[in-house]
Amino acid sequence: MGTRCSSDSPAPDPGGNCKNTSGLTFRVTGTSRKSRARTGILSTAHGTIRTPVFMPVGTLGTVKGITPEELRNMGVQILLGNTYHLYLRPGINVIGRFGGLHEFMNWDGPILTDSGGFQVFSLAQMSKITEEGYAFASHIDGSRHLLTPEDTVDIQSCIDSDIMMCLDQCIAYPSDHDSALKALELTTQWAERCIKRKSILNIEKNALFAIIQGGMYPDLRKRSAEELIQLDFPGYAIGGLSVGEPKDLMYEIGESTLALLPDKKPRYVMGVGTPADIVELVESGADMFDCVLPTRNARNGQLFVNSGTINISNARFKTDPRPVDEKCACYTCTNYSRAYLHHLYRNRELLAYRLNTLHNLDYYTRLMEKMRNAIEKDEFPAFKRDFYSKRQPPGKNGQ
Amino acid sequence: MGTRCSSDSPAPDPGGNCKNTSGLTFRVTGTSRKSRARTGILSTAHGTIRTPVFMPVGTLGTVKGITPEELRNMGVQILLGNTYHLYLRPGINVIGRFGGLHEFMNWDGPILTDSGGFQVFSLAQMSKITEEGYAFASHIDGSRHLLTPEDTVDIQSCIDSDIMMCLDQCIAYPSDHDSALKALELTTQWAERCIKRKSILNIEKNALFAIIQGGMYPDLRKRSAEELIQLDFPGYAIGGLSVGEPKDLMYEIGESTLALLPDKKPRYVMGVGTPADIVELVESGADMFDCVLPTRNARNGQLFVNSGTINISNARFKTDPRPVDEKCACYTCTNYSRAYLHHLYRNRELLAYRLNTLHNLDYYTRLMEKMRNAIEKDEFPAFKRDFYSKRQPPGKNGQ
Predict the structure, then answer these.
(1) Which residues does chain A have within 8 Å of residue B94's beta carbon, measured at their own beta carbons?
(2) Which tens digits make up the pLDDT trace of A116-136?
(3) Residue B42 and residue B32: Cα distance in Å, rounded?
(4) Pairing of β A207-212 and β A125-129
(5) Closest partner residue to A97 among B66, B319, B336, by Cβ?
(6) At what angle do helices A350-376 and A380-389 cross, to 10 degrees?
(7) Beta carbons of A127 and A180 less than 8 angstroms apart
(8) Catalytic residues of B
(9) Domains and CATH numbers, chain B
(10) What ipTM describes this predicted complex?
């Protein structure tokens, strides 16, 4: 670990080459005086990202139905890939031949990959978790695999992720204090092993973030944060949120955990969430988000609008000539009526999934843009009031 | 029928307004001295089309997975819609509210619709065919409908088809001479009723083509052509081909029937076909084609290349970094490898269907373009030699 250093720390040896070992720099560019919300610029090996940012999920090396050009054109800045899925399909041997996921999927912007831990936890037929790692059976063909912290770094390095995530131990909600404690201890151990592996691989361009665990226990979240901050990562994520807990509890744990993280480093809330979740957590100081909601819900016919959501399959849209949202300038709203989208969706036409997804991703992208603008102008509270004035308050099925 | 006239005929009454009653003009712009192949310009209410032309099938008001912009950008000139499908879903009341299919689906170029007869014949649970029309039960919900020649004109007028087709009676292959005779007689009767209905509706912008039937019997094809030519349509289609007959027979009946049709009017071979089928029938003088092959096969992983087809799901493509076709300039070949397409297809990713369809439609569009260029330069025989030099001859599974 002697060569590891964070871009936020002064270079320990001006003659050495470890200054960029983290593969990433982060600069806070704006703060909100009345909240912890802030804007920033995150620089990665594949370009810069303005935060707060939402990362669309491209599970298998594709944001379902959408081309990289379309993502770029709507202002998507960074994609999330799932290490577990990519490891199983197409496999690292395939992605490796292309020098990484960027080339394979034709996306030249930044990519963040999760560590695979959450998918093993939620999808695989897990057989055993030990200090060594996760031993699991593939959810596709039942084949048996072992995923160690070292493996996840190797895999994400092969993917050439701009931001790699440490392997963490996820726990169910609710979990007792003792289970949550054990999981966070293992997560810290694994984080150290990930750092070590990255150092051995000598991959400066691929940044590595740690994941704070600790369940819904503030004392454990604090302990996890302290242990991982000690290891001086260039960015920190909060895992284990949005796993079935009440909204209020998620916001509370999110807010208190975010408050523990260094101001100078990006803060990423994993797997979150609804538009309201994101607004709440941006207010608490979060910089990065990912979630399947805009893409998955699009494929289920649920479209995001300022008042919440509409379900395009609803019969009331059958002859509705208006766009999904009259103020939306996305490709879908510019060109198609609710009646057409209703028709496509009811008939399970491929174009339905595509047009719905374009709208929802545009909604999320514009939401983040509006928040960045509001923070830069120090008008975040006004933005938030306006956001909620059009919908139900959080915790009451509001989105 | 007093106001009916063809744009190819001199206006019978210079003071009248029936000159454009056909909604269409056609001009032959190039001929091949060594074959019957020709180029032309077909002008419709929604724009002009250079022939020979291939019309992608947009069954339900969408070419599956592809936007109108993408079709335009690749050079697609005209789409085909299915009257039967559109009548059932979304229904004419919905399309009518948008003033037609163009506005509903956001395609401002020409649209041709079939009459619905073929789909009733092949998809619906047909209960009865009488002089009146087809009485059938919907393949979706079993609801009962009656489709008369008048209805098909009304429906296609509501769709605002640039080219409407007369209701015809389709027959199975093989059919005996007597059945084929009865079907062609009914088809002629129905064609007269369609003309009458169009005249009553006074829809000048919507051209109406007749469909030659007669099965695989040259004498009946001749009779059908003579009867329908007598009615002076602005264009003629050949129906009842590619219904299971041997290739050689299809080419033979296609060629002999095309030879019966007026030189000054567009000739359309319905539901055909493979690239080789199209080359053969262009050589015999056909101007227009439609077929589900490029789009449907794309969704089955079969991609058209100069040597025939490849199946992208084949394991040999797993790590292949080359595009589908190294000489192809389509969006898919410009940006993606066979390995990526293989990965997408094997995982049933939405983007697979889209990228495969873009490639196949580009292949067909370029094929037509090459033929038009060859005919204009009077080099069609050289084009055809070159086409076959890369693949198996027709009739031997060649495409």
Answers:
(1) 318-319, 339, 343
(2) 989 988 888 767 899 999 999
(3) 18
(4) unpaired
(5) B319
(6) 140
(7) no
(8) 114, 290
(9) 50-289 (3.20.20.105), 298-389 (no CATH)
(10) 0.94
